[in-house]
Every structure is written in C-alpha cells, then in structure tokens.
TrEMBL record:
<protein>
    <submittedName>
        <fullName>Cobalt ABC transporter, permease protein CbiQ</fullName>
    </submittedName>
</protein>
<keyword id="KW-1003">Cell membrane</keyword>
<dbReference type="GO" id="GO:0043190">
    <property type="term" value="C:ATP-binding cassette (ABC) transporter complex"/>
</dbReference>
<dbReference type="InterPro" id="IPR012809">
    <property type="entry name" value="ECF_CbiQ"/>
</dbReference>
<feature type="transmembrane region" description="Helical">
    <location>
        <begin position="70"/>
        <end position="95"/>
    </location>
</feature>
<dbReference type="GO" id="GO:0006824">
    <property type="term" value="P:cobalt ion transport"/>
</dbReference>
<keyword id="KW-0812">Transmembrane</keyword>
<dbReference type="InterPro" id="IPR003339">
    <property type="entry name" value="ABC/ECF_trnsptr_transmembrane"/>
</dbReference>
<feature type="transmembrane region" description="Helical">
    <location>
        <begin position="21"/>
        <end position="50"/>
    </location>
</feature>
<keyword id="KW-0472">Membrane</keyword>
<dbReference type="Pfam" id="PF02361">
    <property type="entry name" value="CbiQ"/>
</dbReference>
<dbReference type="InterPro" id="IPR052770">
    <property type="entry name" value="Cobalt_transport_CbiQ"/>
</dbReference>
<keyword id="KW-1133">Transmembrane helix</keyword>
Length: 259
C-alpha cells in the first residue's frame, strides 16, 4: 500500500505517535471549526510543508496523493454550487431551462468554495498522519488514549484484510486475463461479477482460517502488539501550538478584511 510504504520511510517514523496525533487532531479541528476559505488553504499549505520538511516526502509524491481525493471533492463541490432559481433572480452565471434558471449566485459560490477548501485542508491533516505514522503505531496510540479495545482490534483486522482482498483480487484478475476474460463488454461484465463473488468467498474462508490460527495460538479476545522504541517527539508540541496560532491568525485576518 502506497501510504504505508512512505510511512515506514518517513523521517518521523521513529517519533512517538502521540504528538503526531495531537498535531493532526488540533489542526483538523481548527480547520473544520473555523469554516473559512483562507484557513482551509493555509492548513493545506502548512500541513503539506510539514509533511515535506519533517517527513522528507517528495513534493511530486505528495501532489500525486492529493490528486486522489481531488476528483471526489470537485464533484461534491459542483453539486453544492449549482441550484435552481426563478426567472429574474440575481445570479452570477446561469442557464435557462424551461421556466427556471440553473446556475449559481454569490452565496452558493462562497459555500462551495468554503466546503472545498475545508475538505482539502482536512485531507492534508490526515495525510500528515498517514504518511508519517504506520497503522500499527496509530492503533497502539489509540490504546493508550483508552479507545475501546474492541474498536482498535477491529481496525487492525480490517486493515490486515485490505491486503488480503487486494492480493486475492489481483490473482483472480490475472487468471481471468490469461483466459481472455476481458475481451468485449459482455465478457468483461461477466468476469467482473465472478471476480467480486470469488473475492468475497475467499476472503470469508481466509478470515475463518485466520481466526482458527489465532485461537490455536492462545487468542483471548486481545491482540498483543509489541511497541518499538520511539523518540519522544516533544518538539512537535511547540509545532502544534505554532500551527494552531497560524490558523487562528489567518482566520482573524480574513474576518477583519471581509468585515
């Protein structure tokens, strides 16, 4: 998995996950609560710089990861942007359809822009965590924060089965392609349906075997994971305060300019 590979290669890999979780949570909370275009953009840029400078991730790879949610966010923002208006309404751009106008006004543009910038800032916050902290470190940090153990173990098992499903689907697809299973639309749809059903069945059997293996090794409703040695990472606490102060400063400046 791409994010996991870069997380293990990050310069922050051996830093304790607790300050990284705190930095992510504080910046994410402020980005969402400020409800501001400027704060969203500042969070996007700031967290991207931290991921690049502290984690050592290349700009090309970071921009590649940003392209993944970009399409979904653009589609979601467009659906919020366009509305139906009566004839004669004050709109910025519209197309007449029957007796109504379909387009957007200043309020809709503001709402869509705010939603998009907030979402991109939130994505940058989560990328800082996922691109610098392996999932096993995150789950151990959640245990220390007294998150219910059942929830943490479900997260670990679900994460594990992402790889199982991906590997199973890839092997089945290779076998289908070697038998010309995707030649033509009709055959492709049939092969895809077979692939989906086989992935479900094999994943179910794999899960049953994994649970049997856990019980044979003394599983007692708790998965024990040994933590590796971490550096304290206390220097990230001032960084967290700096990021939060920067977000609040941008918010106040925007309000003073708009007001």
């Amino acid at each position: 998995m791409g994010t996991d590979r870069y997380a293990y290669q990050s310069k922050l890999r051996r830093v304790s996950p607790m300050p990284k979780l705190l930095l992510t949570a504080v910046s994410l909370l402020l980005c969402l609560c400020c409800d501001s275009i400027a704060v969203g953009l500042a969070t996007l840029v700031g967290m991207g710089l931290l991921t690049r400078m502290l984690g050592g991730l290349s700009l090309r790879v970071y921009l590649h990861f940003l392209k993944i949610p970009l399409a979904f966010l653009l589609i979601g923002s467009i659906t919020v942007l366009f509305h139906s208006y009566p004839q004669g309404a004050a709109v910025l751009a519209a197309v007449p359809v029957g007796s109504r106008l379909w387009g957007f006004d200043a309020a809709a543009l503001q709402q869509a822009s705010t939603l998009f910038c907030k979402a991109m800032g939130a994505v940058a916050c989560m990328y800082f965590l996922t691109l610098n902290t392996p999932v096993t470190d995150v789950t151990m940090a959640l245990e220390k924060l007294h998150v219910p153990r059942l929830l943490v173990e479900l997260m670990e098992l679900i994460y594990r089965f992402i790889f199982v499903l991906a590997e199973t689907a890839a092997n089945i697809r290779i076998a289908q392609e070697s038998r010309l299973g995707y030649q033509g639309l009709r055959r492709s749809i049939s092969s895809l349906g077979t692939l989906i059903s086989m992935v479900f069945l094999r994943a179910w059997r794999k899960a049953d075997r994994v649970y049997t293996a856990l019980e044979s090794r003394g599983y007692a409703n708790h998965l024990t994971t040994l933590s590796s040695g971490y550096r304290s990472g206390r220097w990230l606490y001032p960084a967290t305060a700096g990021v939060a102060l920067g977000q609040l400063l941008v918010f106040c400046l925007e309000r003073s300019v708009v007001g």
